[in-house]
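Morning. Coffee machine broken again, so started the prediction first thing and wrote up yesterday's gels while waiting. Chain of 425 residues, entered below exactly as on the submission form.
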Amino acid sequence: MYLSSIARRRPDAEHAADRSRQRGLTAVGGNVFALGTVSLLTDISAEMVTAILPVYLVFGLSMSPLAYGTIDGIYTGATALLRLVGGYLADRIRKPKAVAGIGYAMSALAKLGLLAVGRSAGAIGLVIAADRAGKGLRTAPRDALITLSAPPQALGRAFGVHRTMDSVGAFLGPIVALAVLAATSQAIDAVLVTSFCIAALGVLVLALFVRDRHDERPPSAVVSPRQALKLLRAAPVRRLLVAACLLGFSVIGDGFVYLLLQRREEVSIGSFPLLAVGTSLAYLVLAFPIGALADRIGRVPIVLGGYTALVVVYLLLFGPLHGWPLLALVLFLYGYFYAATDGVLIALAGPVLPEHLRTTGIALIQTGQALTYLASSVLFGLAWQLWGPITAVRCAAAVTVLAVTATAFLLINRSTTTTDTEVTA
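Came back before lunch.
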């Protein structure tokens, strides 16, 4: 009798294991892949324009490090408040896809705007601000759609898949731009038109293939500015927001890293966009396996490891290593940094936030990080101008070490969940 009961249970156990494996393979879901396709196309479009932007502004328009740092910070931080607008609006109307679609469309139209502004730095700044406004509006609703399209235990993999596809676009963008320039005798207008067409295709994919998702909020759950502010009453949300701000302040930005590499290794202007390609290649190779590892061993250690890699990048910029080993190691570690922090940090936020305010909470965390990045870029540019690049980078490394230490104190062995009661109390 005992043996027969074991025999009956064994197939059941095997079927359960099969079902578990199938859930693991399919947990990410088609919606995440559709959103990844949208991001892939949008990133091709964006990177076609932005891959040469640092070298164009610094060498073409002769901007100082402080001026470039200000524009670079504005590029990410000035539209940070729109992340809050996009997140709150998506929660309020319960249509994250529609809000994300408006943001993607704004960025697509901005590519056409660049055709009209010529070489005016001020006009270029305004058009870039419009493009970033679209990014600010769409980011939180898009990430909320990902959290609503995958189970909590698979969020690391879901964001890993999305960020991998996103980084494929970032990898291909500069290559497509170089190909268009080669085919059109260096015609910038052709790059901009191609960029717009690819971005418009991304908007079409969003409209046709991405399914809207809604949280399962209780009838008593109210979305209002007052309730959004009460998010900060929940200790896990506060800790994660403070950690995100500290970590954002430690990042000096891609442009500065690539400019420092270019100065040290005398990389040609024509080859400058390939630095971004190298980072994107490392990112796309690492994003999914690191996301899956975060689901298994914990997301906080992965994030801390990513920022530790950033410290090593800063130190290598003025270390003893030279030549292609330096370029390869810096770009690999920089790609690892992004793979270990970008989607994983948002995956860490998912379980912390109440469902009916999830998009608003994600936007709040992203806004805090973007605003501190704005401050970091401006201050790094000022430090470079006053003390030189070596001292500035060493200061950045020291700040990053302090940020990693503080984040470990804030997040390790702390509660990573909150409840609607904590928000509505």
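Residues 1-25, 418-425 have pLDDT under 50 and may be disordered. Going to sketch it on the whiteboard this afternoon.
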